[in-house]
Amino acid sequence: MDTHEIQPSPRYLFRQPLALQWFESGKLVKRHEEERQAGRFELFLDLLYVAILANFAETLAEDISGAKLVKYILIFAPSWHVWSDLRELMNSFYNDDLLQRVLILWVMSVLVMYGNNAPLVDEDISAMRATVGSYMVARISGSAAHLLYSFASYHHRAQQRLWVTLTLVSLCIYIPLYFESISVRSKIAVAAVGICAEEFSWVFCFSPAAKKMLKAKYTTAVNIAHEVDRYAAFYIVVLGEYLYQIVVGSPAAVGFNLGLLHAVWTLVIAFCLNWMYVHNDGALKSTHPFRYSVYTAFSWATLHLPLSASLLASGHVAAASAAEDRFRDPERWLLCGSLGAGLYCLYALALLSEDKDAPGTLMLPKHLRMIMRPIIGLIIILLGLARDLNITSIMSIIMALIVFCLIWENITSLHCGAGIWERWENTTYPEQRTFGNGHRYVEMTLLSVGVQ
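The structure corresponding to this sequence follows.
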């Protein structure tokens, strides 16, 4: 298909939603061959998540306890599901018309309500109702879009309608949260069951099992480039929590001080975490989990939820160190535990990629290249036991460990026999180069004017 078929058209405010890729009798078909990147309005949605996630992390850091950690997980996961709904829709049917833009604006408006009320769900029944209500409206809005699109395009119809049905059934699980008579513990159990049910519904609807059950000739497929781009964008949003508080409010002023050192160490940690995500397993030739198998694809996508939740929590505590002179025990545990868990998630992501390099191509095989991630992760988690260390020592040790892990991965991912410095060649202007006989180099452009 021509590229203009998926571009915004000035002739219509509302365009027919067309599937961009699908499987037809098991064969992948694409409407166009160009790789897609995230749309501008998708990135605009991510901006709101910067504020929402920061608010969730701030709420957790104010009063760190087991109950608050559970609440943090239970309010973080639904916001992820709403983001995932829009990612799924834009990946399959992106046409950037008025309807899609209004849908994004509408969902963002509902998320504003969710982001403001979710941190207060354990304090006020009205906040609980507003949170659950706004979440259900956001999910129903995404489901309504999928249902509408199933009439406009037959390529994903069977699975879309199955997904809409299971989504609406899963949302019914949250109804008990509206009642004040139900205890908080019971509501926690209800929310946990609802979140797990939604995750299972998503995996099942787009799995080979559902395709086989539906006996559908046309089934869903994803644009891998766009999907990877969207997950990477959300990861960057999460890492932004490391950077926001080290500048806003000038916590490290004035001049050179320990607060500035903590802020710089936090920046280095975030930079290394981003580098690790990009570096992945360090292979020269590898197969992305989305291309390897359906099991690795779902595992890769699902792992981003605990990865994002853990790094968001650790990022907030690390950034807060710029304005503090000591860590309380809960803060130290949250920083070390969540950052260590994040490293384990990054390790699992790297393992999911298929290494296709021949043995002996790189300095070390894949598992030895990646082995420092779980080792460093365990050391950082155990660092939470070090009550006698001050905040500067803890931040310095964590920074040094993560930098060491990154250096290990980059060195062991080099070719066997690789050097440190590449020799610089051809650094002079062509007309200044000389040959052994002393004659200057004559540019080949002289031939174009007839000089022989």
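The first strand starts at residue 21 and ends at 24.
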